[in-house]
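Field notebook, page 219. I keep forgetting to write these up properly, so this time I am using the form the group agreed on. The chain and the ligand, BIS(adenosine)-5'-pentaphosphate, are recorded exactly as supplied. Prediction of the bound pose follows.
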Amino acid sequence: MRIVLLGAPGSGKGTQSQILVKTYGVPQISTGDLLRQAVAAGTPLGLRAKEAMDAGRLVDDATVLDMIGERLCQADAAFGFILDGFPRNTAQADALGSMLKKLGRPLEAVVLLNLDLGVLFRRLTGRRICEGCGAVFNIYTAPPDPEAHLAKTGHLPQLIQRPDDKEEVIGKRLEVFDAQTKPLIDYYKGAGLLQVVDADADVDTVFHAIQRAVPPRVC
Ligand code: AP5
């Protein structure tokens, strides 16, 4: 399986990637997660990325492409990957195409998770993350069960909000998606790779729609 999950902030890319990882045993490659790890570790790359991320802008292409080039060459990506949050613009999509051509591993599908603005906004403002283990919850759609969490992880949920999930930053992220990432819909439609999935449904329903949308040779 070599796929891209394309979609606006909050459309469910991370949630669905986790299920795909468990089901198909291929790694999730999330540029957002890689960047957040670099920020938390205080690396030079993280320090460069932080300002753009906190403001809801894209991190510069050179930084992201270096990071993704390195990640795609790691052994666990040899038999497939789920790209989550990458590419984000046509320059990144062109660069990805060249990288994968060199590696002899072309993309098999690009799945667009389609969702209305109002639902996106609610999912983003409601998202909370457990500081202890990184588990993702939503105060509206998927609140944590403290006892079940304690039994599973050994700690109670310690919920925090991502800095870019504040209302004032969400607006900017959605604007950036419209201006820079939406053109990838036509880009990949033209390449014959695009599959559109209605993401306005519960998590399992969306997952089954992805399974149906992705050609059988991929799964
Ligand atoms: P990134 O981390 O990639 O964020 P994003 O694309 O904005 O996506 P999100 O992580 O916000 O949402 P998601 O689609 O994964 O939704 P989730 O599954 O969590 O990027 C962050 C920043 O890093 C960017 O702004 C940029 O600065 C930088 N960056 C990253 N990649 C870059 C790149 N390639 N180039 C340049 N800069 C880059 O779900 C959201 C919520 O909804 C959760 O609470 C979840 O529980 C809930 N939920 C999910 N599915 C459902 C469902 N079906 N029903 C009900 N609730 C649901």
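OBSERVATIONS:
- Residues 7, 9-15, 31-32, 35, 52-53, 56-59, 64, 85-86, 88, 92, 123, 126-127, 136, 138, 141-142, 164, 173, 202-203, 206 surround BIS(adenosine)-5'-pentaphosphate (CB under 6 Å).
- The first strand starts at residue 2 and ends at 7.
FOLLOW-UP: compare against the apo run.
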